[in-house]
Amino acid sequence: MQVFCIQIFVLLNVVAFAAIVLLTRLAFTGPDRVTVVGWICVGFSLCVFAAPLSIIRLVIRTKSVEFMPFYLSFFLTLNAIAWFGYGFFTKDLYVEVKKDRKQLIRS
């Protein structure tokens, strides 16, 4: 089971990231590249925030955070940092500030 988890981790974090970088570097230029990377970030953001809804519902229903895994909070924070970076490097102050404000409220 651990080997399978490591394989999935490497596949999603190394291979998928390399594919995204190569695709955007080779197939798109200038503003189109920024738009494509932005939509990829939207897709990952949707997955990150929609996947743990059942856990969050359990936490709200039981009024206990014992069911809230550490890695959930950790990766939600990483997602907020990724959005901050996207907003910062594209000089999109709205994205940069809005996502970080939500993260501060959530913490």
TrEMBL record:
<dbReference type="InterPro" id="IPR047664">
    <property type="entry name" value="SWEET"/>
</dbReference>
<keyword id="KW-0333">Golgi apparatus</keyword>
<dbReference type="GO" id="GO:0005886">
    <property type="term" value="C:plasma membrane"/>
</dbReference>
<dbReference type="GO" id="GO:0051119">
    <property type="term" value="F:sugar transmembrane transporter activity"/>
</dbReference>
<keyword id="KW-0762">Sugar transport</keyword>
<dbReference type="InterPro" id="IPR004316">
    <property type="entry name" value="SWEET_rpt"/>
</dbReference>
<keyword id="KW-0677">Repeat</keyword>
<feature type="transmembrane region" description="Helical">
    <location>
        <begin position="6"/>
        <end position="24"/>
    </location>
</feature>
<dbReference type="Pfam" id="PF03083">
    <property type="entry name" value="MtN3_slv"/>
</dbReference>
<keyword id="KW-0813">Transport</keyword>
<keyword id="KW-0812">Transmembrane</keyword>
<dbReference type="GO" id="GO:0000139">
    <property type="term" value="C:Golgi membrane"/>
</dbReference>
<feature type="transmembrane region" description="Helical">
    <location>
        <begin position="68"/>
        <end position="89"/>
    </location>
</feature>
<keyword id="KW-1003">Cell membrane</keyword>
<keyword id="KW-1133">Transmembrane helix</keyword>
<feature type="transmembrane region" description="Helical">
    <location>
        <begin position="36"/>
        <end position="56"/>
    </location>
</feature>
<keyword id="KW-0472">Membrane</keyword>
<protein>
    <recommendedName>
        <fullName>Sugar transporter SWEET1</fullName>
    </recommendedName>
</protein>
<comment type="similarity">
    <text>Belongs to the SWEET sugar transporter family.</text>
</comment>
